[in-house]
Amino acid sequence: VMKLNPQQAPLYGDSVITVQLGEEDKVEDDVVFYLVFTGSTVQHCTSTRKINPGSLETISPGHDCCETVKVALCASREGHPVLVVAEESFQFVQDEAYDAAQFLATCAGNQQALNFTRFLDRSRPPAADVDFLDEKVALAFRHLKLPAEWNVLGAEQSLTENIPRETLMHFAVRLGLLRLTWFLLQQPGGRGALSIHNNEGATPVSLALERGYQKLHQLLTE
């Protein structure tokens, strides 16, 4: 028996996993333990480091896709055959950092997206700057020739409302952009966005409250 903690790692790997061994597998000094991760198309082998007699530590490998893999704990001792001591399943998942990297990769040549990140960077904190950013972005948004089918929730607005996801409204509220929020509220999907929870379970309304944006919260609840 072994327990892996945590039982999942991001696709890009490189996170620490602790392996709790069962009573019968206490680490003897001349035994070398390693883990074999077997996915649908790729197999990885990682070495382990002894933390104490009942537990080991390893670094998760990177993997080629999101899936549940089989992890075998193997023990080898000089002059003896390699033994599979225990097996457990483990999951490779896509996390926010991976999503962000993927987004940035798709924006590699997109000057609009890249200029936007520079604009955000230059317009960070002081309240006066946020106010300036809010004014400019809301003005710019009003000026855009948005297609007739444009929706605050994006092209897949047909997604049922209860799928947790991040929306433009979350973005506007998180930065405290009052004018932009007001503009989005008047667009198709704007009111619908108010009741959508993101992966942390926050709606734009709860975000406004949590961040102490009273005016914004008032606007969203009225």
Automatic annotation (TrEMBL):
Q: Which GO terms describe its molecular function?
A: MAP-kinase scaffold activity
Identify the GO cellular component terms for this protein. Answer: actin cytoskeleton; membrane
Task: Mention one GO biological process in which this protein takes part, according to its record.
Answer: positive regulation of canonical NF-kappaB signal transduction
InterPro entries referenced in this protein's UniProt entry, alphabetically: Ankyrin_rpt-contain_sf, Rho_GEF
Q: What is this protein called?
A: AKP13 protein
Native species: Horornis vulcanius
